[in-house]
Amino acid sequence: MKIKSEKLIEYLLASVNKAKNSVLEFKQKNLTKLNAKSAQKKWSALECIEHLNLYGDYYLPEIEARILKQNRNTNRVVFKSGIIGNYFASLMKTTNGKIKKMQSPVEMNPQNSDLNATTIDRFIKQLDKLIWLLNEAKEVDLQKTKTSIKLTKLIKLRLGDTLRFVVYHIERHLDQAEKAIK
Amino acid sequence: MFLQQLINLFEEKNNKKFLAKGNFLIQEGQTETNIYFIKKGAVRVFHLTDAEEQTIRFGYERSIINSLASFIQESPSEFYIDAVRKSTVLVLSKNDLIQLVNLTVENTKAYNTFLEVVITQQIERELDLLTVSPSQRLDRVLKRSPNLFQQVPLKYIASYLRMTPETLSRVRKS
Predict the structure, then answer these.
(1) Domain membership flag for residue B174
(2) Which of B14, B67, B76, B125 has the most CB atoms in a 10 Å sphere around its CB?
(3) Which domain holds residue B51?
């Protein structure tokens, strides 16, 4: 995938802002509804959000550390996706309302943990952090800056791909959360 | 004397709140308009970041607590207060408190003394955080609150001491 860096960040920022609005709406709902599940093994809305929190705990500090190490004003005009990075990001992406189903790793499975209103508040703080990071990312090279991933130490992804992955992952699970409260 | 009077006022108003573990007295963004007397149980005050809940204070049985900065400035609270176990709390509004404080000159003086104690406690807390050694940090807190471990689950104490639960267990054993 090839896209102007500026365009990509703009698109991701819009998505995160949209995510924040829908999460603020979740906050108005009562806890019973937010904890409700359609089936034993399905996640409740709060579990979806906690799952995102658990990933945020890894990715936000990682992205922050990598960006802060870069020199400023090194941004490049056009960002080109890496092969693996593009694969992972696309895996997360919802296309035409359809997602690829997959199993979450055990340590990232939020089921049966202690969830309440702070779960949402913490996620809102994470989204604010992500918005800040996306703005910081405007000044660095999205292609040359590499970030580690949770899955394996063997590969690193281009910052632009990691940001896409993180944002698509949020979109994916917020869709799931919306369904859970219907 | 004032403290007893204050507690009497709590009892007299008898505005009871029953909290299950994890129920909130106040959440971030709300404005604190009350003070609370912990009749039974225990509560904690914590600040939420994008990564964790940071416990900054505990309210034990028979102590008085609230989200103080929000209460004084009538601004949105930056802290949450929730019950760490099943608790019964007496609630008193700011207006009722002020009425009592302004009733006599002695009361006003006593209220000032009460606030001085709170300020001194805050400075103790600052020193806690500046203490590098985990075991000394624990010692300082145990000196103030010997029954801490009987009242509050270990994970919250660890958070209060800014260490992991694992470190706290190790330090306690040695």
Answers:
(1) no
(2) B67
(3) 2-165
| CA closest to B81 among chain A residues | A118
- The reported pLDDT for the residue numbered A144 is 96
The number of domains in chain B is 1
Is residue B137 in some structural domain? yes
B37 interface with A at CB cutoff 8 Å: no
pLDDT at A152 over 90: no
**CB–CB of A125 and B48 under 8 A?**
yes
pLDDT at A41 over 90: no
Instruction: Report ipTM for this prediction.
Output: 0.83
Q: What's this model's pTM, rounded to 2 decimal places?
A: 0.89
- B133 occurs within a structural domain: yes
Query: Domain A2-181, what fold?
Result: Four Helix Bundle (Hemerythrin (Met), subunit A) (1.20.120)
Chain B contact set for A56 (CB, 8 A): 50
In a domain, B161, yes or no: yes
Residue A112: pLDDT over 80: no
Chain B CB contacts of A60 below 8 Å: 50-51
CA B90 vs. chain centroid, Å, equals 14
Distance CA A84, CA A81 (A): 8
Give the burial string for B27-64 (b: 16+ CB within 10 Å, else e). bbeeebebbbbbbebbbbbbebebeebebebbbbeeeb
A56 vs B: CB within 8 A: yes
Contact state of A57 with B51 under an 8 Å Cβ cutoff: yes
**Confidence at residue A102, expressed as pLDDT on a 0 to 100 scale:** 86
